[in-house]
Specification:
The chain is α/β, with parallel strands linked by helices. The protein has three domains: about 160 residues, P-loop containing nucleotide triphosphate hydrolases (Rossmann fold, 3-Layer(aba) Sandwich), CATH 3.40.50; about 30 residues, no CATH class; about 120 residues, Zinc Finger, Delta Prime, domain 3. Helices cover about 55% and strands about 5% of the residues. Strands 2-3-4-1-5 form a five-stranded parallel β-sheet, sandwiched between helices. Helix 4 links the parallel strand 2 and strand 3. It starts with 8 loop residues before the first helix and ends in a 7-residue tail after the last helix. The chain binds zinc ion (ZN). Zinc ion binds next to helix 3.
Length: about 325
């Protein structure tokens, strides 16, 4: 089986080379935006290192027990350390506990592997604790971290890892991949590729989550209505939102983040920038809105949305946050 991963050719050939005996290092850091394929790449590397029946050097079969267990994330020598449910960051205790495991001899593999996704969410204490494992790694230890960017981690951590930086594919390349490799119908493939901004993992998770896609559409429809509404109706919208869905912080954050993608599209269209729109299905409305609003005002709206997300994250009252945002929206009369 080939690695069968869209793009990332340089990273793949690097890791294939590092899967050869004597070439494997103790620590890797895979960076890139969410949904770009960091974990998929890490797991493919783990399969290559452990496959019981590799079809060729640097490949894995995808069928043997080791490959299947790694895919199902229950391989005994691979620990995946995630942020605990309900927590915002990775804690020092989790790192210490992991280090006890890392120090043990592997059950069956050459390595004791630990994958830590999104290490940018580690606390300073957790980061400093991890440093010990990087400075004096147990002889059979293999650590793979992922993060949004190298710069989000302590420099002392990044400098002790082999760093692989992943970038999204072009929207067109991803669209072709979804059409040809995933047998997704053309209109949907196009939409998903745009929504995901070329990030294959994100496109596939959208594809498997129709509720999320529907919620996305609903949020944009709501925004269209709000732009045509006066203040009183906007406040009524918030009432309805609270009654319909409860007033969870996540709901509000989702709504605002979705609207933000719309306004970014409006800016792209306004500036006639050669960048693919995220919400290609709403292209007409984006173009109409772009014609009605000057760029300074679009900039202001973008900032208001970004600030609202920061405020939500800082635990401000969600209702107040969204009220402020709706007050800042212009009144358009777009049909
Ligand atoms: Zn295998």
């Amino acid at each position: 089986m080939q690695w069968n991963i869209l793009g990332h050719e340089t990273a793949i050939s690097f890791l294939k080379n590092h899967s050869k005996p004597g070439k494997t290092r103790h620590a890797y850091l895979i960076t890139g935006p969410d949904g770009v394929g960091r974990e998929t790449l890490a797991l493919a590397f783990a399969k290559t290192l452990n496959c019981q029946n590799p079809p060729a050097e640097g490949e894995f079969c995808g069928k043997c027990l080791a490959c299947r267990q790694i895919d199902e994330q229950r391989y005994p020598d691979l620990m995946i350390l995630r942020i605990s449910e309900g927590s915002k960051d990775l804690k020092i205790d989790q790192i210490r506990e992991m280090q006890q495991t890392l120090a043990l001899a592997p059950y069956q593999s050459t390595y004791r592997m630990v994958l830590i996704p999104d290490f940018q969410h580690a606390t300073i204490g957790a980061s400093n604790a991890l440093l010990k494992s990087l400075e004096e790694p147990p002889s059979k230890a293999l650590l793979i971290l992922t993060a949004d960017a190298k710069e989000s981690l302590l420099e002392t951590i990044a400098s002790r890892c082999e760093v692989l930086r992943l970038r999204p594919s072009s929207v067109g390349t991803l669209e072709g991949f979804l059409l040809n490799e995933k047998a997704i119908v053309p209109a949907r493939a196009k939409r998903l590729a745009h929504l995901a901004g070329g990030r294959v993992g994100r496109a596939l998770s959208f594809d498997q989550n129709q509720d999320l896609l529907d919620a996305y559409d609903e949020a944009l429809t709501d925004l269209g209505d709000l732009l045509n509404s006066r203040l009183r109706e906007r406040l009524q919208f918030i009432e309805r939102l609270q009654q319909r869905k409860g007033a969870s912080r996540e709901q509000f954050a989702f709504l605002i983040a979705t609207w933000l993608t719309f306004w970014r599209d409006v800016m792209i269209r306004h500036e006639r920038a050669d960048i693919p729109l995220v919400n290609i299905d709403h292209e007409q409305r984006i173009s109409e809105t772009a014609q009605l609003i000057p760029s300074r005002q679009i900039e202001k709206i973008l900032k208001v949305h970004e600030k609202a997300l920061v405020n939500l994250d800082a635990n401000l009252n969600p209702r107040l946050v969204i009220e402020n945002l709706l007050l800042a929206l212009p009144l358009l009369m777009v049909v």
